[in-house]
Design goal:
Elements (H helix, E strand, L loop, with lengths): L1 E3 L12 E5 L6 H17 L3 E5 L4 H6 L10 H10 L2
Parallel strand pairs: 1-3, 2-3
C-alpha cells in the first residue's frame, strides 16, 4: 500500500485502487473500506493507494479551524505494514 499526503508525490503509472479520506481513526467504516480495497487488489492485482490529508478538507474548503487528528505518521506506518 502506498500512502500519499500531497500531490507532489502523485505519480501513478498504472491502474490502481485509490481511496481518498482523512482517516482520523480506524472505525468499522474504514475497516470495511480497507477490506473492499484488498478484495479488489486480490481480484485485479492492482496496487492500493491511500490518499489522506494532514488537515481536514473542511479547513481548506470552508475555512473551518483545524481539527485534532487521530491519524499520525505512526498510524500510517502501521496501516502500510498491516494492510498489505
Amino acid at each position: 500500500m502506498k500512502i500519499l499526503q500531497d500531490t507532489k508525490n502523485l505519480n501513478i503509472e498504472t491502474f490502481s485502487i485509490v481511496t481518498l479520506g482523512k482517516f482520523d481513526g480506524f472505525h468499522l467504516g474504514h475497516q470495511a473500506l480497507f477490506q473492499k480495497m484488498f478484495e479488489l487488489k486480490k481480484k485485479t492485482g492492482y496496487p492500493i493507494i491511500l490518499f489522506t490529508f494532514s488537515v481536514s478538507p473542511r479547513t481548506h474548503i470552508k475555512g473551518e479551524p483545524p481539527q485534532f487528528l487521530l491519524s499520525n505518521p505512526e498510524r500510517e506506518s502501521w496501516l502500510a505494514k498491516n494492510w498489505n
